[in-house]
Amino acid sequence: MTRPPMPNPAGPEWPADAVLYQIYPQSYADSDGDGIGDFAGLTARLEYLAWLGVSAVWLTPCFDSPFRDAGYDVRDYLTTAARYGSNEELAKLTDAARRYGIRVVLDLVAGHTSDQHPWFLASADDPADHRYIWSDRAAEGFVASPGRRAGWYRPNFFDCQPALNYGYARQDPAEPWRQPIDAEGPRANRAALRETMAQWLAAGVSGFRVDMASSLVKDDPGFTETGRLWREMRGWLAERHPDAILLAEWGDPAVSVPMGFHGDFFLHFGGPGDGAALRSLWHNGTGTVDETWPPAACYFDADGAGSMETFVAAWQRTVDALADAPGSGHAILPTANHDLSRLACGPRTGEQLAPAFAFQLTWPSVPAVYYGDEIGMRYVPGLPDKEGSVLGPQYNRAGSRTPMQWDSGPNAGFSTAPADRLYLPVDPAADRPDVATQRADTGSLLHVVRRLIALRRSHPALGTHGSLEVLHTGYPLVYLRGGRFLVVVNPRREPARFALEQRHVPRTALIAHGVHTDPDGTVHAEGFSYAVFEL
Ligand code: GLC
């Protein structure tokens, strides 16, 4: 397939070395005691993030919203939600973060607005408005107009999230709502997207994670027109804001990076085998389960029934796809996110987590740590629906969105509000982990994660720059980075062994827990062990 050349193929260099950290602002740190996290609370925690070693934080949407989808239903792209603080406070957060060497990335909900957005309220009253997709009949998937306009609109996710009109790649006289991508509505929406980005970039943010990035142009086989749109945005950024990045929520970096993105997340959905790659690592069938996913054992599981083969094959496919535009964008490997179960979910807790981080932080992808995963915060089952968290009978995102656990005090140090006023309840477990306790204990998961981040940052060959040679995809997982570092990870309960070739027998352990090698090259990995060696 021939593709148009990538604008600014090299892009800014900082994402290659980034350690991303995702924050759900509702639940991170509450400074004013209203039970909901805010910018000032987060600002006060920047010292912690710098100590941990993260280099960029991504905030899920913090804009004015009726919060029927946790802020993914934006009512005003240019104004922050009052509950987090003002635009000025967000700018202050960005400034303070930069002093700590941390960049702030916002969420760009490009494909839809809230049904309370003034653009939609106007569109629902005015048949001449084309910012949204309107049909004159009850077409499949369309929702009846709430306004004076007769007709039906096309939602993008929940019904309260009408799709912005970026046009259709294919026209059809029988479906007159399919407008070309250069019609007036789509042009106005693309201009608005740039206006939104320009405002926040001027306020000091370093880029955007783009929500449902593949959803903009409808009926777009091969994402030809969607790709044209994002490459145009990247070209604009490269010219006006060359340090800024666009990260896609797409789930398939092999496809999205050539479309113009500086990075994309491996996710439970999207990508080869419809997200099977990430599920084959982390998903143990609890918390956030879509019934359409075929059941499969995951690799990071105490019973050890999984294999790394699915993931490694998806990785190789991604590397091959990105080879013709080197450095233009990266695959991002998240521990979890606000839509997926946490690393500590169902049967996977405690000592099983460090091996997962040892893998994530020495793999050539860009790592993204979901807030609280670094201390092993657990997915909390059985919560009621909160701001649209429930997506199915076995799919409740609230369990991954509970308040950050800062200390062993009331509300885990998240907020001074009465417990029943918190955004979501704190994990009720008596042994819930917290930052203060783990910071004081150099043997804690938090310290392991911090050491692994420091190791990655001090040895570029452990990051996106070094080559990768996978030596074993069973238990233990064994791979070489940059021809120089040997990584061994055994996430199962049972010990595991592997025979190294003589040339791979390591000399020094940079970090090791339960792994040793004999001079004959036998690697002995105890249950739940990991190590990074230097050859
Ligand atoms: C993305 C977000 C998710 C949201 C949806 C609709 O998948 O990550 O939280 O509900 O888009 O905006």
From TrEMBL:
InterPro entries: GH (IPR017853), GH13_cat_dom (IPR006047), O16G_dom_2 (IPR045857)
Family from the record: Belongs to the glycosyl hydrolase 13 family.
Segments forming domain Glycosyl hydrolase family 13 catalytic: 22-401
SUPFAM superfamilies linked: (Trans)glycosidases (SSF51445)
Protein name: Alpha-amylase family glycosyl hydrolase
One Pfam family in the UniProt entry: Alpha-amylase
Gene Ontology molecular functions: hydrolase activity
Keywords: Hydrolase
